[in-house]
Amino acid sequence: MGIEMKFGNEGMDCKKYFLLFLGKLWIAALAAVLGAVLGGGIYLFVHVALDRNREYRAESKIYLTFAPDESGEIYQAYNGYTWNDLMKTRPILDTTMAYLPDGYTQEEVAAATKAEILSDLRLLTITITTSDPARTAEILRATDLSLVELGKQAKEFIDIEIYQETEPQMVAADPRLLQAVLAGFMLALVFTLLAMALLYVLDDKIYVPGDLKSVTGLPFLGFSFTDRPDAGREKKLCENLENDLERNRQHLAEKTGTLTVFGVTRNQTITEETCKMLREADGVLLAIPYGKMDRTTLGYRIGQLSLQECRLAGILIQDADMRLLRWYYNHL
Asked: Residue 148, exposed/middle/buried by CB under 10 A (0-12, 13-18, 19+)?
């Protein structure tokens, strides 16, 4: 019997690939979780475990007592949107530098300083972040003293007081850690989904009868099962499929005679004794293991058996996934 190979012209069975893909979706989910853990772990290793990349942060709470202002212009001038800019200008920055010992630059101090009004316009939060705890503490203290000095000199204020100062703490987690976790999650998820899609497109294993059409014109008799479910919808489905197989088998036997079932696997060796036994049969039914036999190997096996003058009569698929079959055939 001739072998017809039509992989190039064969359309994709999107429904089959989609169901197979759904069955392995847990792999993508697991990969995404591992990617998130890896992304966060790499970030923590680079920014926390390595000494040169560690960051230390300290905060202070500064209470601002404004001078009386019926117009409200002072409150508008000193708000959360301008304090960051004010900290980098004279006289605040110059005064801050005066309270610092030698070895500090204005650029370093400006880059390390963050000033923000979180809720109350009278409560200013100063955050200092550097790679050294001692320098963090020095800049914070100098900045706070500079602001106290501003309260004494600027007419807009009655007083500026230091309410609280914290000790420098190593930054173990910040918004960038979340970004690293999300980046690892998304990269792993996208890569895994693309890899799975590519693998399924290139996969030529046999799952459903349609996979056999590109290899052979042998009639498909049905599905057989070694392990049968004890109850439920899958038990009923299994019984229905095996009834179909038996009915088709009896019909084919009436035309060809006694049928011999021969299991075909990927790595088997077909001996001369096997060929002789198969040649003596009135007809041979090839049994293909579900999802374990590729079409290329099956085509080769059919060619060899045909050359040995074995009377190939039909083909069946063994031990298929009944959940996939039920959805593939519209909840059969």
From this structure: middle
Looking at residue 153, its amino acid is Q
Question: Hey, is 279 helix, strand or coil?
Answer: helix
The b-or-e profile of 239-250 (16+ CB within 10 A means b, else e) is eebeeebeebbe
Dmax (CA) of the chain = 113
DSSP H helices, the chain, are 14-23, 25-44, 73-77, 83-86, 92-98, 106-112, 133-153, 175-202, 233-256, 272-279, 295-307, 322-328
**pLDDT at res. 33:** 95
Quick check: 91 and 148 in contact, CB under 8 A? no
pTM of the model: 0.57
The whole-angstrom separation of Cα 213 and Cα 208 is: 10
pLDDT along the chain (332 residues), means of 10: 44 82 90 93 74 80 84 65 81 92 92 87 90 92 93 88 91 75 93 89 87 88 83 79 91 91 90 92 94 92 93 93 84 58
CA distances 285 to 188, 248, 253, 262, Å, are: 44, 12, 10, 6
Name residue 116's beta-bridge partners.
Answer: 125
Provide CB contacts within 8 A for 245, sequence distance 6+.
221, 222, 223, 224, 316
168: which 2 tokens? 């420098």
Of 309, 287, 322, which Cα lies nearest the Cα of 212?
287
